[in-house]
Specification:
Jelly Rolls; mainly beta; 29 strands; about 35% strand; 1 helix; Immunoglobulin-like; about 425 residues; Lamin_tail_dom_sf; 3 domains; signal; disulfide bond; six-stranded antiparallel sheet
């Protein structure tokens, strides 16, 4: 027929100036997943005929924002001249992308620069702005956008980010540091790094000097989360003195993590020099065991290595050395143990093979310190005796994890107790090479 459709209100981006057109991002909740409902702060909400919402699906999620934070500033590089290697970084900690075209970078003086091309920063993304985009001459920085007419003073200065509507979106005013009577860091050859993008970046105590080296030798983390390795370790020995039979003793080593990310422990070792004839852990084969509470450091689902020194005086039979969730029903992760005829065995629970592993070909020697270990690299499990390959089996898949504790000296549910001495037990979340073992 000859009927026509009249559009009174619309949201068409790209500069179209028709009557009733908003020309703005509609703020769909998740267009990438075909969710075209609107965020609560969409300009399409309540702007249709008689205050109705534009669009067919209505409001489907909370307000969506880009939240841009000036997160890192390199105002005084050392590897190159300031005129070649100044840069700063922003991060989007919001839940919506922002196109920075026509945004302004400035200070409180005469420095100003307008971003003249499309520059999109997605949620959780980092963008690096620098005065030189050549990584071969700027100290090794990958710069996302090269600006002009902006100088980052080595003393006090400001860095201001202004949106196209003239609204100050974020700003930092650093004060030149202690030498200038200020309180901000004032490093040379290192960036100033915000300890967390959630913190107020105009509070000097929230900034610190970068300690991670990059590029041509300066320190910073351009284009990635800031990293501060503020980890303090009590290095005193764990000394139990004399612990009598049927008594217990406790000693604590304190690790304090005041950095800005989780501390990942890639191995746990019990060392008392047993292999050198000094001290070791003694297991009576009756009820002795060590329990290490389940944590991320022993919950490993990718590559794995386990090793220990052991000394036995009689043929051990089936005993458990080190295992996580390895009980009678094998409802767990991994296990290093011995077989009924005195050989070493290792089994893991993978997504492709279930519980499977390898048995060694060599009988354990009596009254000798013996190094036992196994590794898994996602394609093969290998067993080593005194650093020599003693058996292997092709396996694949990720290691299935459980909430069970790590047990040294017995099965997870009791039984199969180890009888002998053990020293330098260790677990790694990587597949050690034979030379490393």
């Amino acid at each position: 027929n000859n009927s026509s459709l009249t559009i009174t209100y619309s949201d068409i981006e790209g500069g179209w100036t028709g009557t009733g057109n908003i020309d703005s991002d509609p703020l769909f909740c998740n267009a990438n997943s075909s969710d075209y409902t609107l965020g609560e702060n969409s300009l399409c909400v309540g702007t249709g005929e008689n205050g109705t919402n534009m669009g067919a699906f209505g409001v489907g999620c909370d307000s969506l924002y880009a939240n841009l934070v000036i997160n890192e500033i390199m105002q005084n590089p050392s590897a190159v001249n300031d005129s070649e290697g100044e840069w700063f970084e922003i991060v989007n900690i919001g839940n919506y992308a922002a196109d920075l075209e026509n945004w302004v970078i400035k200070d409180n003086g005469i420095d100003t620069h307008t971003i003249s091309s499309s520059l999109v920063i997605e949620p959780d993304d980092y963008l690096v702005f620098g005065n030189n985009s050549s990584s071969s001459t700027n100290g090794g920085v990958i710069v996302d956008y090269q600006y002009l007419d902006i100088n980052l003073a080595n003393g006090d200065d400001e860095l201001i980010l202004v949106d196209p509507n003239g609204v100050v979106f974020d700003s930092v005013a650093y004060d030149g540091g202690p030498d200038a009577g200020g309180t901000f860091p004032d490093p040379t050859g290192a960036s100033m790094a915000l300890q967390s993008p959630e913190l107020d970046n105009n509070v000097s105590s929230n900034w610190t000097e970068s300690t991670l080296q990059f590029g041509d030798g300066d320190y910073g983390t351009p284009g990635m989360p800031n990293y501060m390795s503020n980890i303090e370790l009590d290095t005193s020995f764990v000394n139990f003195d004399t612990v009598n039979v049927n008594e217990t003793a406790t000693s604590t080593v304190v690790i304090s993590n005041t950095g800005n990310d989780d501390l990942v422990v890639d191995s746990i070792s019990v060392y008392s020099g047993g292999g050198s004839g000094r001290y070791s852990l003694s297991f009576d084969g009756d009820d002795d065991k060590i329990t290490i509470t389940n944590s991320s450091s022993v919950t490993i689902n990718d590559y794995l290595s386990i090793q220990a020194w052991i000394k036995i005086s009689t043929t051990p039979g089936q005993q458990k050395l080190i295992g996580k969730g390895a009980g009678v029903n094998y409802a767990g992760d991994y296990l290093l143990g011995t077989t009924g005829d005195g050989k070493i065995s290792a089994i893991i629970n993978t997504s492709n093979n279930g519980w499977a592993g390898v048995v060694g070909s060599t009988n354990l020697p009596l009254n000798e310190w013996t190094h036992v270990s196994f590794t898994y690299d996602g394609s093969i499990i290998m067993l080593f005796l005194n650093g020599i390959l003693d058996g292997s089996n092709p396996l694949s898949g990720t290691i299935q994890t459980s909430d069970n504790d790590l047990i040294i000296g017995s099965a997870d549910d009791g039984g199969d107790y180890f009888s002998g001495l053990m020293d330098e037990a260790g677990i790694w979340n990587t597949a050690l090479t034979q030379s490393q073992i």
